[in-house]
Fold this protein.
Amino acid sequence: MESSAPSCWSCGASQDGGMTCAQCNALQPPRSDLNPFETLGFPVSVQLDEAELSAAHLRLTRSLHPDFFGNADPIEQAHSLAWSSRVNDAHRVLKNVMSRAGQVLAVHGRSIDTTEGGWRPSQAMLMEVFEINEGLEEIQRGSAGSTSQSVDEWDSTVQGWKDELMAGMVSHGESWETADSVEQQALLDALQEALARHAYVDNLRGRIERVKQTLAH
Ligand SMILES: [Zn+2]
């Protein structure tokens, strides 16, 4: 950044990375390394006020509306379109707590890949998933006892895991605020684990839903 401080495309004044030039007020292009939190003006955290997030999104969307740039320089029109798509993308990934958690990891250079090759589930989690999959297969084969009740039981077990994960996100956000850099690394580890677990839990919920539909027919 210090080697080539960007300058305003319109007046040439050097820029500090803000949305508009402090000198002439012209809209600047979004920085390529701008993360979604910066784009909407929030600190990098799992915990943020979702109503404030929506308000910031709305405010920015309005200020970038094409109507305001109808008579603008084509360069500025192009910047406004680039900003609009950044702002919409940022809102999309931050409005949901789980994808927001993924963005926190990404900002800290952590992998958010929960598929093969990335994070590995614990033995305990694999056992739980295995047990539920077995149970669901039994139900589908009709070899389990009172079938519909059992699938509802699995459903509430998995829903309980989901609730735990959501509660964990809140306490993660709270701990983060007072954590030192070593504690933050441990919290990022925990966040990676929680996201991976969430992916497993969502898969299971989808599977349970499909079994329920089969049983309803
Ligand atoms: Zn300027």
Summary: Helices lie at 36-40, 50-63, 74-94, 97-107, 123-141, 147-178, 181-216. The mean pLDDT is 87.
